[in-house]
Design brief:
three-stranded antiparallel beta sheet, alpha+beta, binds iron/sulfur cluster, four-stranded mixed beta sheet, 7 strands, Nucleoside Triphosphate Pyrophosphohydrolase, about 375 residues, Endonuclease III, domain 1
C-alpha cells in the first residue's frame, strides 16, 4: 500500500486518473493495437524523442519493417538509414540486434516475461514496463521523465528525482491499477506530457489536484528539485569535405562500437589546443586516412547538442593531393558523388553539411 495513504485513497487516485485518461488521453497510432513489436518500436523511439517527431518515423518504420523478422533480416545500414533524423542511433542498432536475437531464440515472438524483456538490448525497466503493460496489460510500472516529474510533485519530493529513484519506483508500483495497468500507465504518461508539464503545470485541469502535495503547498512550479547542473563540454571539430579530381567526395563509416557507430560522416577530428582549424583538418586526415590534402575555403559551421556535450563542426572544402586512403580510424571509406550521399545514413549534424554542399552546387 502507498506509504501514508489508506487503501481507499489509492483506489480513488487510480480511478481519477483512469477517468481522466478515458476522456483526455491522446490518440496515438501505437495505441490502436497490441502487437508487442509495434509497441516496442514506439517505446524505443519515444525514449529520447517527442511524440510529434516520432509519429511519422514510426509509421514509415512499420511500412519498411512490418515484423520482427523483416527487421532482423534487414542490413544494418538500411536500418540506420530508416532511423536517420531521430538521433541516438544506438537505439536503432539495439532494435536490430534484439530482433535478430528474437528470431534466433524466440522464433520471432516477442516475450511476455519481464526478465526476458529486460535481457534484450536497449530495454531498461521503464521501457519494459511500457511494453508489457501496453501489449499484454501486465501490471508493470514505469518511471520515465514525465512520470518522475508527476510523482515528484504528487508527493512534494524534497530532493532531485535522481536521488530518490527507489522511492519513486515504489510509488509507481503502488499506484498502478491492477485491473487496468495499460490505461493507467498510458494515462500517467499523458498527464505528465499534457497537464503536469515541466513549465506552468495546468493544475486546474489535473485529476489529482486534490491529493497533490505540491499543489496543496503551492510549490508545484518549484518541483521537481533540479539536478545539480555541471557545465556541458563544448568540442570544436575540424571537418573536411575532400574532393578528388573527378569531383567525388571522400566519406567514412564510423566504427560500430563507437558513438554514432555504423553511420557515415565527413572525416575530421577535434581541435588540439593552439591548433588552427586548417592544421587540425590536415593532421586528422593524415592520421585517420593516411592522405595529404590541401585545406581550402570554409563551407559551414554546424552547432549540434548531444546529451552530454555540444559540438561545433567547422567544415572546409579540401583537395585531395596524394597517398592511398586507408580506413585507419574508421570501418570503411568511399569516394562518392554528391548525388549519392543521400543513399548513406549520416548523423543529423552531417546532413546539414550535405544540404550546404547542394546549395553551393546549385548556385
Ligand atoms: S496538481 Fe498540478 S503539480 Fe500536482 S500532479 Fe496535478 S498538474 Fe502536477
Amino acid at each position: 500500500m502507498l506509504a501514508g495513504l489508506p487503501g481507499l485513497e489509492v483506489v480513488k487516485i487510480r480511478q481519477l486518473l483512469l477517468l481522466w485518461y478515458k476522456e483526455k488521453g491522446r490518440d496515438l497510432p501505437w495505441r490502436h493495437q497490441k502487437d508487442p513489436y509495434c509497441i516496442w518500436v514506439s517505446e524505443i523511439m519515444l525514449q529520447q524523442t517527442q511524440v510529434k517527431t516520432v509519429i511519422p518515423f514510426y509509421q514509415r518504420w512499420l511500412q519498411r519493417f512490418p515484423t520482427i523478422k523483416d527487421l532482423a533480416l534487414a542490413d544494418l545500414q538500411e536500418v540506420l538509414k530508416a532511423w536517420e533524423g531521430l538521433g541516438y542511433y544506438a537505439r536503432a542498432r539495439n532494435l536490430h540486434k534484439a530482433a535478430q536475437y528474437l528470431i534466433q531464440n524466440y522464433n520471432g515472438i516477442f516475450p511476455d516475461r519481464l526478465e526476458e524483456v529486460l535481457s534484450l538490448p536497449g530495454i531498461g525497466r521503464t521501457t519494459a514496463g511500457g511494453i508489457l503493460s501496453a501489449a499484454f496489460n501486465q501490471p508493470i510500472s514505469i518511471l520515465d521523465g514525465n512520470v518522475k516529474r508527476v510523482l515528484s510533485r504528487f508527493i512534494a519530493l524534497s530532493v532531485p528525482p535522481s536521488k530518490a529513484l527507489p522511492q519513486l519506483w515504489e510509488l509507481s508500483d503502488s499506484l498502478i491499477d491492477l485491473e487496468n495497468p495499460r490505461d493507467f500507465n498510458q494515462g500517467l504518461m499523458d498527464l505528465g506530457a499534457t497537464v503536469c508539464t515541466r513549465k506552468n503545470p495546468k493544475c486546474d485541469q489535473c485529476p489529482w489536484q486534490g491529493d497533490c502535495q505540491a499543489y496543496n503547498k503551492g510549490i508545484q512550479s518549484q518541483l521537481p528539485m533540479s539536478e545539480k547542473s555541471t557545465p556541458i563540454p563544448h568540442k570544436k571539430i575540424g571537418v573536411a569535405v575532400i574532393y578528388n579530381d573527378q569531383g567525388q567526395i571522400l566519406i567514412d563509416r564510423r566504427p560500430t562500437d563507437k558513438m554514432l557507430g555504423g553511420l557515415w560522416e565527413f572525416p575530421g577530428g577535434k581541435l588540439e589546443p593552439d591548433e588552427t582549424v586548417e592544421e587540425c583538418i590536415k593532421r586528422e586526415i593524415l592520421e585517420e586516412l593516411g592522405i595529404i590534402i590541401e585545406v581550402n575555403e570554409h563551407i559551414i559551421t554546424v552547432d549540434h547538442a548531444y546529451t552530454h556535450f555540444r559540438v561545433s563542426l567547422i567544415v572546409h572544402a579540401c583537395r585531395y593531393l596524394g597517398g592511398e586512403p586507408k580506413p585507419i580510424g574508421c570501418e570503411e571509406i568511399r569516394w562518392v558523388n554528391l548525388d549519392q550521399l543521400e543513399e548513406f545514413p549520416f548523423p543529423k549534424a552531417n546532413i546539414k553539411i550535405i544540404e550546404a554542399l547542394k546549395l553551393i552546387k546549385d548556385c
